[in-house]
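lol forgot to send this yesterday, sorry. struct tokens for the thing we talked abt
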């Protein structure tokens, strides 16, 4: 293999990495705003909450963000190609607003694109060198999300993911920012999960049932391992939410995943794992039998049993999310 990499080969390889499409915006002075389309965005850390944006070092946006100390990242949905193209246009100057594009404000005041799939409102944490680019690291102070299909960029063109199953990461970040407590997790579980089990008995596809079966088979082999069994147990509940066909409920369960896992893992024992697994098997049997009432009843009993195991969790104690799982 040659020691030299042809820059054109590098570009062609990079174009074949599918990425989301975002708009990064900031304020300019007292009454102007500016933004550009960016595909090189990533979450970096949960503790602290950090995200990164990679920008060409000559980008005017970098200068404006250095001055303002703030920026917002709006993740675009599949119907926002025109928004992406507007912010990709060269030669624009800061202006009082973006023509034909509605925005909102959160904490920092940086503009957030209306109807975006999710957003991350940030204060500048650090600027890092990256060859001919600069890596902008932001500390997230507010975030949010909604349901919908993402706008993707692949091989020089826009693509659409037409079958989204979950809400974006924004809701999970917002829950972390709010300091969600163990009691709130248990209350949410009691309110949501019986409904998802009932709906799953009506709406689950063959693919959903196969996914649930695989999760149970994997969990049965790791009951002695609290961390792995808890992760698979939580995954079972999330998969039931996805099988419900209700994206709002499924997205909420996905957003609760890390907090719920942290809450339950340290209290798990082999005996509790066996009881939970037995409930999961019976719930899946009811879903497979299209017994909506039975699935709801079993899930209600299951989540009450789980809550009874962790009633000692004070309502005011927030749950720590593992730092290695951004």
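and heres what i got for the seq, position by position
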């Amino acid at each position: 293999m040659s020691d030299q990499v042809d820059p054109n080969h590098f570009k062609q390889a990079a174009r074949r990495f599918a990425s989301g499409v975002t708009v990064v915006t900031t304020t300019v002075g007292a009454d102007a705003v500016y933004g550009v389309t960016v595909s090189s965005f990533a979450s970096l850390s949960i503790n602290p909450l950090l995200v990164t944006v990679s920008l060409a070092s000559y980008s005017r946006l970098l200068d404006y963000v250095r001055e303002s100390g703030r920026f917002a990242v709006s993740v675009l949905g599949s119907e926002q190609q025109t928004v992406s193209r507007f912010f990709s246009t060269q030669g624009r100057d800061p202006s009082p607003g973006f023509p034909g594009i509605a925005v909102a404000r959160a904490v920092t005041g940086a503009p957030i694109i209306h109807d975006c799939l999710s957003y991350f409102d940030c204060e500048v944490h650090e600027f890092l060198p990256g060859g001919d680019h600069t890596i902008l690291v932001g500390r997230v102070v507010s975030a949010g999300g909604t349901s919908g299909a993402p706008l993707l960029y692949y091989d020089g063109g826009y693509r659409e993911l037409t079958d989204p199953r979950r809400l974006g990461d924004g809701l999970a970040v917002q829950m972390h920012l709010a300091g969600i407590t163990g009691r709130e997790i248990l209350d949410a579980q009691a309110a949501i999960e019986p409904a998802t089990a009932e709906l799953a008995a009506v709406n689950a596809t063959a693919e959903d049932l196969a996914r649930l079966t695989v999760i149970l088979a994997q969990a049965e082999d790791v009951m002695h391992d609290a961390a792995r069994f808890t992760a698979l147990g939580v995954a079972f509940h999330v998969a039931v939410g996805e099988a419900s066909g209700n994206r709002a409920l499924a997205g909420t369960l996905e957003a609760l995943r890390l907090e719920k896992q942290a809450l339950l893992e340290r209290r798990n024992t082999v005996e509790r794992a066996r009881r939970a697994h037995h409930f999961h098997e019976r719930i899946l049997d009811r879903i497979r039998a299209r017994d909506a009432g039975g699935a709801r009843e079993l899930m209600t009993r299951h989540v009450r049993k789980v809550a009874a195991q962790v009633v000692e969790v004070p309502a005011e104690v927030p749950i720590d999310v593992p730092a290695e799982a951004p």
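The first helix runs from residue 7 to 15. anyway ping me if u want another try
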